[in-house]
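Batch 3, record 17
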Amino acid sequence: SHLLLTEPTPLAANQDDSTNDGSLRTLLTLCDLLNRELLVLIGWAKQIPGFSGLSLVDQMSLLQSGWMEALLVGVAWRSQGAPGDELVFAGNLRLDEAQCRATGLADLYEALRHLTAKYQAMNLSPEEVVTLKAMALANSDADPVDCPDSVQRFQDGLHEALQEYESSRREQHRAGRLLMSLPLLRQTADRAVQAFLRLHRHRCVPLHKLLLEMLDAKA
Amino acid sequence: KEKHKILHQLLQNST
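Prediction for the assembled complex:
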């Protein structure tokens, strides 16, 4: 219930108007949205029980490692049942396959639709979505870890909450199924990071400082 | 740490 309460209100995209190039405009709009979502995500992380008790080094490691996974849980959740198999980055930023291809994000589109279909088939509840998002951050296999015991306790707390929630619904296999979906999320996030790094390096798409810093941490 | 100064600053801010 704490995670449900601290779940941030979805952001709206601010349409970029610095260029006449339509696909570049879409990209710049998306990158601006991502940068603002990152800011919100960092504030959200601090509110997850146990996160602020971690050392600053470990907080940084977990975020640098798990930020894209946590953001993509939101995109995949919003994209469920979207008409035309669109990716719903924001209520006012929905990209279909053709738009993603035109902006150089065909690979990201395919990976994210796959993740969205997986979540849709699992019929996730809002409780499961917020827990999955927090677990993606906690389970990021960040290295080096400053205080492994504290990170472990942070992970255990989330795992316990998930198990308690699922046992209250008398769903004995759900917790395991959710955990088994984490590798696909990791894989999807890796492809997303590569896609944005490619855009930046090969097409010189300018990125905001925070987004660039977080992408660099993964490069 | 210098490389990740924005994240560092954001985490140090109280809210």
